[in-house]
Every structure is written in structure tokens, then in C-alpha cells.
Specification:
Length: 262
Amino acid sequence: MYAFDIERPTSVADAVAALKDEDAQALGGGQTLIPTLKQRLAAPSKLVSLTGIADMQGIANDGDTLRIGGATTHATVAVDTADTYPALADLASHIGDPAVRNRGTIGGSLANNDPSACYPAVALASGATIITNTREIAADDYFQGMFTTALEDGEIVTAISMPVPEKANYQKFVQPASRFALVGVFVAKFADGVRVAVTGASNEGVHRWTEAEDALSADFSAGAIAGLTVSADNLIADLHGSPEYRAHLVKVMTGRAVAAAS
């Protein structure tokens, strides 16, 4: 580690002002940023903690949509959405370990957009809207590739608006060392169709499997995707699995998610 300043604003406006300083960087739960600093892969002159901003915490429910503050921890999401969006609660309850869940935040995860993170899958499959201090961004436009989002410099994820589907489930094939998804698939069934989001598999990060969406919108059953093939092109290759293995897992996890949701 090295010397840096830290500010703990109590309002979004103060956080935005602090982030205007040169080399300032927002700090959510720190589950990614702090290890990055320890490895000297990043060197901000100032960290601006977002965890003390009350307006960015908590969950509100208007019946068919949840509004989740960007500084809400995984542990809070796991408990407070159990009745309204069980699939989201289950996803949050299996992120990392208890220490990670009690520090990490949903806004931090979405801002980082790790290619194997779980929240991008639920946000994309749910057709969520990412709310920042300046605008609202549809999930389909927000995720733009590995560790890449539509966020501009100094822009903060203040909340997420998450429509609640009729049925949903998330299946994660866990990489045991990191607890990230080797492959994770979130399936969400709405009145107007099905959305399927895949994380952990692609070099492009989280993405939708549109062929499965079409098949499942016509027949919401695991058998509906039996004849589909997942291309291994541009899928991740590492010591944990080949592109072909990940392609296989995408189909398997999708089938399991549909079966569980049904």
C-alpha cells in the first residue's frame, strides 16, 4: 500500500464534488479496489467512500419494482429481498463469504463489472435500470464489455431499479477458490417474454443468450433449449476451464435455472 487521502461524504453531492479532484476514485465496499491497491495495480491520490451516504442505502418496494441503493450491502440484499424477489436474495446470499457480503455493495459490483460477478447477470436479466447522480441507464446499454460500463468519470451508481419477474432463478457453477462464477446464468420470465443473462463465460463480460430467450418465451421449460448449441467463440479460456467447457456449462446452467424457476 501507499499513502493516499480518504474522504467520507454523507451526501451524493459532496461525493461528486470530492471525485472532481485529480486521481480521486470512488470506494464502495472495497472488495475489489483494496486488493488492487495492495498489489499496486492502481494508485489514486484520494479515495471517496460512498458507504456513509444514507440516500444510497436500503431497499424500497413499489409492488413490481425494487429500488436498491447503490451502497446497499450484499447481506442486506440477501435478507431484505427474500420475500419480494427470492431469486435475487438467493444470488446475493451466495456471493463470496460472510465478510464479503457484509462489506461489498451492489453499486460497487455493478460499477466494476467483473466478467464473473453475479449482480450484472441479475441486472441484465431483470431489465434493470442503473441510476446515477446524473442519469438513468438501461442495463442493455450499461454493460459494455469486460470491466467496462457506460459510466463516465466521476459518475456514481446511486441506485438500481429492478423489475420483479413472474419467475426467476440463478444457477452458478462456482469457482471454489474465488467464489466467483465459472459460469452463472440468471433466467427471468416476464409477461412479455424471457430474458437470459450469462456471466463468467465470455471475454465480453455479461451478455444475453438471445436464442434461449426466444425458445423459452415460446415454451418455458428446460426441454425448450435442448436443441440449442452455445458457441465457444470468444469464451474465456483459463486454467479452470476451456471455452468449450464454459459453452457446455452455459446450456446446463440455463436448463437448471429454468427447471428451478418452474
